[in-house]
Amino acid sequence: MIEEARIKKNLKDFAFPRLSGTKFEFEAFSKLKQQIENLNLNFEVQNFTFSSFYSRWYPKIAFLSISFILLLLYLNMTMMFSMIITLILLGILIISIIITRKPEKIHFISKFNSQNLLVKIDPESSQMKHNDRIVMFMSHLDSKGQRFKVEIRIKIIKLWINTSIILLVIIGLKNLIFIGFQMIFYIIGLFPLILNIIPSIMMLLNNTDNSSDGAIDNASGIACNLELVNYYSSHENRLRNYSMWFLFTGAEECGTMGIRHFYNNLENFDASKSIIFNFESIAKHIFLFPGGSEGDHAVDVNRLLLNNNRNLTIKTHITKRIFGTHSDGGFLGDRGFQGYGIGGVETHAYMHTVNDRIDKIDTNVLEKLCLVLTDSLKEHDSKFFKI
């Protein structure tokens, strides 16, 4: 059975600061591992190492480098020193872009250890033991605190992008078209230049620490994922046409390192026949974040979720990912996996702050969500594959 009391207990147990790569994240992993062992389920531990460069250093380098290059272009300095500085910055930026195409392979600056835990449960039907249809639930184990909350960081990124575009236009007009009126464009460009430098400085000051309990992000997701592990550990609750996978990733908050490791080592997973649900920051309302172009099976489950009989309102689909944000579900969605992120949008006011506490979460909503998911998958399993 789905039990709110157990969800509430797990929420409390996992709502403590657990920065990726620290002993606190490993403590959360150990708590999880003990629960899975108590259920007598088979599981796999995937250990990996990662660097903090991609998540914590690369954004600062990129923002500052581009802002400084725009400043030099705005000033239109022809000195050899200015040209050399510009070339150096461009070189650093290009190298950073190249090496961050595969950030999980970076092993310099600060290097840490983390781990994923994967539970696999076979379908109830003996004829389907080795089928290629999988329902996978995901949640990440780590949390982080930052100086600026998510909604402020989003505004910082948008301001920086917009002012960068405006500056490029002004610089182009000043140096290529209205050559005799440079002073006017110097004056016009001063305001967006200042507004461009401010976000770069704020990004530099946006340090990462272990100050947030991470209740919303993502103890709520861990609690839902664990509740479904409990539910499907009973043979009578298992699906007939799908295997069930439950993935708990490490280091999601440091550039989605856990899911990258999982993906790079993934075998026997047919993305076209499988459905993924990523629990990510649930508080008091449920939103679905579609992964992309969904197949018939994912669309059918989606329809059942929206038309549930548990009095759970699933709010408007969010179809556009916010630039600069990373999630395990978004990573797999970019690679053609089908499914949905399950989370909230009002949570941005608390995520990555000391205010991300359990009092912001409605466990009754989490219980209803788990019930709706099990109802929908059961109905889909019995009707979609009916011969």
Describe this structure in a few short sentences.
Helix content is 48%, strand content 14%.
Please tell me about this protein's structure.
This protein is α/β, with parallel strands linked by helices and 387 residues long. It folds into two domains: 4-51 and 110-146 and 208-383, 3-Layer(aba) Sandwich (Aminopeptidase); 56-102 and 149-205, no CATH class. It has eleven helices and ten strands. It has helices at 4-14, 23-38, 53-75, 80-99, 150-177, 182-205, 215-232, 257-264, 296-306, 328-333, 363-383, and strands at residues 43-51, 111-121, 134-140, 145-146, 208-209, 243-249, 275-280, 286-290, 314-315, 339-343. It has an eight-stranded mixed β-sheet with strand order 1-2-6-3-7-10-8-9, with helices on both faces. It has a two-stranded antiparallel sheet with strand order 4-5. It is elongated, with a radius of gyration of 24 Å. The mean pLDDT is 89.
CATH level-1 class of the largest domain = Alpha Beta
The succession of helices and strands, N to C, reads HHEHHEEEHHEHEHEEHEHEH
CATH superfamily of the largest domain: Zn peptidases
User: Any idea what the radius of gyration is?
Assistant: 24 Å
For the record, the count of structural domains works out to 2
Estimate the mean pLDDT confidence: 89
What is the distance, rounded to the nearest whole angstrom, between the alpha carbons of the first and last residues? 29 Å
Order of the strands making up the biggest sheet: 1-2-6-3-7-10-8-9
What structural class do helix, strand and pairing data support? alpha/beta
Q: What sort of overall outline do the alpha carbons produce when their principal axes are compared?
A: elongated
Strand content: 5-15%
The main β sheet shows up as: 8 strands, mixed
Q: Based on the structure given, which CATH architecture of the largest domain is correct?
A: 3-Layer(aba) Sandwich
Q: Give a count of the beta strands, DSSP E runs of length 2 or more.
A: 10
Helix amount: 40-55%
Low-confidence regions:
none
